[in-house]
Amino acid sequence: MSESRNQLLQTVVFAAAALLLGATPTHAQGASVFSPASSVYREVTDETGRSVRIPQTVRRIVSLAPSLTETVYALGLQDYLVGDTEFCDYPPDAQKKTKVGGAINPSLEQIAALHPDLVLVTKGLNRLETVHALDNLGIPSYATDPHTVNDIISSSKKLADLFGVPESGASVAAEMEQQLAALQQRLASSPAKRVLFVVWHQPLISVGRHTFIADALRHAGAVSIVDAEQDWPQVSLEEAARLQPDYLVFAASHSETSPPGLEALSTLPGWRIMHAVSNHRYAVISDAVNRPAPRIVSAIEELARQLHPDAFVEKPESLSEKPAKGKVEKEKSEKDKNEKPAPPPIQPPRPAFSLLSGKLLADGSASGGRPCAR
């Protein structure tokens, strides 16, 4: 069992506590033992509706979720990230940051020692107790709470505004929206596939209708057979077999090419009567689908390509549409004679993160790598 899957199972266990995050008081009443360097403050409202008092200029950030670490890098703010969790492994440079423990049980002492201006948390993963403890230490925390892919885009923009780099947020959002729009155009004539997204297989846990993963499935031309109000519902094998999904969808961790025991499902009672299992209709995609961060777009496209391969077959250009080679060369030659050489274009600054490639660009940072849950 990989650490990322352990982390995701912990997320399920603590989901009830995390849902209470929105009820956190505006300000803790305990004694403040921490003071950020800035003496100028502002009031902001996070995505759970909490009013948070933070320094006017945020220059030291601690992230308590892998998705938030990825977003900080996507916005080009990695130099401000002074600490993150043991599960923050993407991009690879994030592994070099000071670790403050896990997302569920971070070390408050290590966080305080880093003197952060702001700690980033997410309602779907971090615990209410952590937020209260940070309040009592006088360390401000800002919570995100995305439930859809559009919410993830919006969260990225809000964080960019929070850190004073709105242009980076607009750039990240525009790239995500463009890629999703192109994907929807490809899938316009493809009927949605009915899928079972497997978060955990013993017991069988899937995703509810209000999760960002369920929304990601929809963007990939799929619909979950599980239509539950709970975010992480446990589903009986009998019910899954009755609904007969077209495909089973799994997220592979950074250390796996496919989930362990995938082929063994056909030998297990309950699983083997599913047509998708007997016909080996599995879709295994990047674990980026488990993280509400910009890179989720890459996982959405991965899934769409596996479920709808015909939509990604490029049609050959018709011979009648190709201009004659000689005519093209003649026109080009005449054009070159009559035109002055164009000056080199002014290159806009490149973003720090390329979304679909999942690579940091050439600014002295690394490329490649894989994610972990949330």
Q: Could you walk me through the main structural features you see in this protein, from its secondary elements to its overall organization?
A:
With 374 residues, the protein is of the alpha/beta class. Helix content is 32%, strand content 15%. The chain has helices spanning 3-13, 15-18, 66-74, 108-113, 128-136, 149-162, 166-187, 212-219, 237-243, 275-278, 296-307, 325-338; strands spanning 41-45, 51-55, 61-63, 81-84, 98-99, 118-122, 141-144, 193-197, 200-201, 204-205, 222-224, 247-252, 282-286, 353-354, 359-360. It has a five-stranded parallel β-sheet with strand order 5-4-3-6-7, with helices on both faces. α6 packs antiparallel against α7. 40% of the residues are buried. The model is unreliable at 1-6, 8-35 and 340-372 (pLDDT under 50).
